[in-house]
């Protein structure tokens, strides 16, 4: 029996546990012995590599986060520790590895693959949705659901008290979460790193709207913009003349029960990843585009700059 392992690296996302469940079940179906690597690349170094079966994934499909833990490994940046990681995989006769993670995780596995020849498949798993080559990353749908639920609740208070609310969402240096959640919540302003917005334009627009009866505003901002949430809040009070409050959603965006879509996408990503490895694709990231899955080389993924969907930017032209 051939052995295959899976690890989670970087920030956790809802959808990882459904992915782990299907990894175990589909590996066994394909005649493979599945292994868990606990705590990401750190677990490879510390030999926290354990053979698993059905009982190890019972009851986890509805849970957020990841049962096997995740980490950002500084040691894995050093060649001597990557050698230890490879030796530990060899001890378990593991020559295939699935990596659930984002940009940093894929850069790490790219180096590891080139040094050791380990076959791997990357499954994009980041709420930032900033992986080049794929329209969708695992965990995004659940995160957007949490953000939109929060924005709907905040709008109730904003309208009741005639206030402006500045809501900061995650995304690192990518504005995807802010852009999509602003569009789907009906926000009046969206600030993202990819576009320098003209606040003077909005000052004129918002003051005109106030004169015509608008009582409140919702601004969704990405954490990666140059201004802070407090600065935008002060801008509302000084330039628009409306009382303002700040809400930073923080890590609630990463947790929660995986949505139906993320559970289904987890199954589909894992199926494509294992099938790809069995067909001899040894350095691919599983990508989702226009409703279909495809495999792209790790070299393409790590060396191409991610860009927001131009269609989303066009839809949002009046609020960015």
Task: Explain what the structure shows.
This protein has 320 residues and is α/β, with parallel strands linked by helices. It has two domains: 2-139 and 258-305, Rossmann fold, CATH 3.40.50; 141-254, Rossmann fold (3-Layer(aba) Sandwich). It contains eleven helices and eleven strands. It has helices at residues 16-29, 40-45, 79-91, 103-116, 140-161, 176-185, 199-211, 229-240, 260-278, 298-303, 310-315, and strands at 2-8, 32-37, 49-51, 94-101, 119-124, 164-169, 189-191, 217-222, 244-248, 283-289, 292-297. The chain has a seven-stranded mixed beta sheet, sandwiched between helices. Strands 7-8-6-9 form a four-stranded parallel beta sheet, with helices on both faces. The radius of gyration is 22 Å and the shape is elongated. The N and C termini lie far apart (55 Å). The model has no long low-confidence stretch (mean pLDDT 97).
Summarize the SSE layout with pairings.
Elements: E1 2-8, H1 16-29, E2 32-37, H2 40-45, E3 49-51, H3 79-91, E4 94-101, H4 103-116, E5 119-124, H5 140-161, E6 164-169, H6 176-185, E7 189-191, H7 199-211, E8 217-222, H8 229-240, E9 244-248, H9 260-278, E10 283-289, E11 292-297, H10 298-303, H11 310-315
Parallel strand pairs: 1-2, 1-4, 4-5, 5-10, 6-8, 6-9, 7-8
Antiparallel strand pairs: 2-3, 10-11
Helix pairs in contact: 1-9, 5-6
């Amino acid at each position: 029996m051939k052995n295959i392992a899976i690890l989670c690296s970087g920030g956790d996302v809802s959808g990882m546990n459904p992915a782990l469940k299907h990894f175990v079940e589909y590996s066994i179906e394909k005649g493979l012995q599945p292994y868990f690597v606990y705590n990401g690349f750190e677990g490879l170094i510390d030999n926290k590599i354990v053979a698993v079966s059905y009982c190890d994934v019972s009851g986890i499909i509805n849970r957020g986060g990841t049962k096997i833990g995740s980490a950002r490994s500084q040691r894995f940046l050093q060649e001597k520790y990557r050698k230890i990681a490879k030796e530990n995989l060899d001890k378990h006769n593991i020559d295939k590895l699935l990596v659930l993670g984002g940009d940093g995780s894929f850069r790490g596995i790219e180096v590891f693959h080139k040094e050791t020849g380990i076959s791997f498949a990357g499954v994009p798993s980041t709420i930032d949705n900033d992986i080049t080559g794929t329209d969708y990353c695992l965990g995004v749908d659940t995160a957007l659901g949490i953000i939109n639920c929060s924005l709907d609740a905040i709008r109730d208070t904003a309208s009741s008290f005639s206030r402006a609310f500045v809501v900061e969402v995650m995304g690192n240096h990518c504005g995807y979460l802010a852009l999509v959640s602003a569009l789907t919540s009906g926000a009046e302003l969206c600030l993202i790193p990819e576009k320098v917005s003209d606040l003077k334009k909005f000052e004129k627009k918002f003051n005109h709207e106030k004169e015509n009866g608008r009582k409140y505003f919702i601004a969704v901002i990405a954490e990666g913009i140059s201004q802070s949430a407090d600065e935008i809040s002060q801008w509302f009070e000084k330039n628009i003349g409306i009382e303002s409050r700040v809400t930073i959603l923080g890590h609630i965006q990463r947790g929660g029960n995986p949505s139906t879509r993320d559970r289904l996408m987890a199954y589909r990503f894992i199926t494509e990843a294992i099938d790809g490895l069995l067909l001899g694709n040894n350095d691919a990231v599983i990508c989702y585009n226009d409703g279909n899955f495809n495999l792209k080389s790790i070299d393409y993924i790590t060396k191409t700059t991610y860009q927001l969907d131009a269609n989303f930017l066009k839809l949002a032209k009046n609020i960015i």
